[in-house]
Amino acid sequence: MPVRHYPTLLTYLEGNRRRTPEFDDVALELVEGALPPDLVGTLLRNGNGHFEQHGVLYDHLFDGDGMVARFRFDGQRVTYRNRYVRTDEFVAEEAADKMLYRSFGTNLPGGLRANFGKTQFKNTANTSLIEHGGHLLALWEGGLPHALDPESLATLGRFDYGGVLRNPFGWLDRRITPEMPFSAHPKVHPTTGVLHNFGTVAGSKHRLVLYEVSPAGAARVAHVLPLADAHFAHDFVLTASGHQIFFLTPVAFDVFRAFAGLTSPAASIKVDTGQPTQIVVVAPDGTVHRLHTAFGFAFHFVNGYQDADGTLVVDALLLGNYPDSAAIKAYLAGNLPDDQPQARFVRFRLDLVAGAVTRQSLGDCEGELPEIHPGHLGQPYRYTWTIGRPASSPLPLLDHLLKLDVHTGEVRHAHAPDTLCSEPVVVPRAGSTREDDGYLAYLRFDASTSTTDLLVADAADLRTLARLRLPHNIPLGFHGLWQKG
């Protein structure tokens, strides 16, 4: 398929190749609009802080060291601080002044000789954040979380919930995966306050491990389910009814090739689009249901809930295929195929009694990094906000801010030329009763000026209310959270 070079994307990538500098509580310059006086709290974002490691350009978007950015709103101004998550691997590479570790999508330079037998992969701690049980954690689904000091953002160290995340399954399994993965998309139940999460644990036998963490921070392994393959599963759904829903697609790691050093883990992934997706539902009483549907891969789910008739509803951003390592490496060079497929909004309805799965389109647009009103997690909802591409856009870039009404399919979008934006974090207005009565906080890179701004928009109509200039460019990152003031 024809491949096109996108200058906006390339300018963004080249401007963020090297390590982002760290800043201490700098007041941001207001360059447009006015801050809402009732917007008081803290926006935290996590993401890769660079696309290059000591002169080696990463092959995958997911590989840069985690960098946490903090924006404190007091109703009049915003102050900014950022810190790298100082994992053991980060500290060692900084001391050696060179790349020492393989990562999710990038092997060490030097081919098989340099990578053979190197089974320790870099924990980048770069994907998301969770504040729960008295701890602020930086998350990366391939290993342990990292605890952060909530005031200074200093790294306190690897966090294993008192040993719960240490592999208990035998010597060989501990050799393969000593630290049990703890996904970057935990969910906190809206009424119990219990945090639910999972990890796909590769080993002599592959397993899907489900965790529960009490509001006080006490963790336990709640379920262990056998897996036929080392599935790549990034996200899951938790409903207010207590159902946990996992989509296990025929997208799986070739563990031998990855651990032997023949390829990176990302490049080892095998995809069989001719096989169905298995949907695993763990009911509140522990009963496991297994359903099947046609192939489709979802990095992220928008939301899910149990309908009045008992049907489970799951809204996903569904891809027709998994984006392979070659496509992501081309993206990091600023190149995209003209007909690059992007994720579409799809609703699945799961009938556990009949074992049936149906699906429908929710809107004529594409998107990623979906956010909803936090008060509607696991419950019926109407709106989602994402980065995306409306049907009217001729470019295969997710360079718009979108609001989708999942009831009607209506799409609102906002866009400025030559810009890219981050996941929009939803901040409900205090005392509001309308689902879209609130604010969106997100970052935007402007290629025409090579600057990065923090934007506050109206969640209802996407209108920009305030724009503030960062003192330097930073990668737009992956996921964030809002802490109330």
Describe this structure in words.
This protein has 485 residues and is mainly beta. The protein has one domain. It has seven helices and 37 strands. Strand 5 and strand 6 form a beta hairpin. The longest helix is centred in the N-terminal third of the chain and has 9 residues. The chain is globular and about 60 Å long. It starts with a strand and ends with a strand. The mean pLDDT is 95.
Strand arrangement in the largest pleated sheet: 24-25-27-28-29-30-31
From the N-terminal CA to the C-terminal CA, the straight-line distance is 50 Å
Residue share in helix: under 10%
Biggest sheet, open or closed, and with what strands and sense? 7 strands, antiparallel
Report the mean per-residue pLDDT as an integer.
95
Structural domains: how many:
1
Based on CA inertia axes, which overall geometry fits?
globular
Detail the poorly predicted runs.
none
Summarize the structure.
By secondary structure, the protein is mainly β.
Please give a handful of descriptors for the protein shown.
single chain, 485 residues, mainly beta, seven-stranded antiparallel sheet, six-stranded antiparallel sheet, 7 helices
Set down the secondary structure blueprint.
Elements: E1 3-5, H1 7-15, E2 26-27, E3 29-33, E4 40-48, E5 52-53, E6 56-57, E7 66-74, E8 78-84, H2 88-96, H3 111-115, E9 128-132, E10 135-139, E11 146-148, E12 155-158, H4 171-176, E13 187-188, E14 195-201, E15 206-213, E16 219-227, E17 230-231, E18 237-238, E19 244-248, E20 251-253, H5 255-260, H6 265-268, E21 270-271, E22 277-282, E23 288-293, E24 301-306, E25 312-318, H7 325-331, E26 335-337, E27 344-351, E28 356-371, E29 383-390, E30 400-405, E31 411-414, E32 419-421, E33 425-428, E34 438-446, E35 451-458, E36 464-469, E37 479-484
Antiparallel strand pairs: 1-26, 2-8, 3-36, 4-7, 4-37, 5-6, 7-8, 9-10, 10-11, 11-12, 13-14, 14-15, 15-16, 17-20, 18-19, 19-22, 20-21, 22-23, 24-25, 25-27, 27-28, 28-29, 29-30, 30-31, 32-34, 33-34, 34-35, 35-36
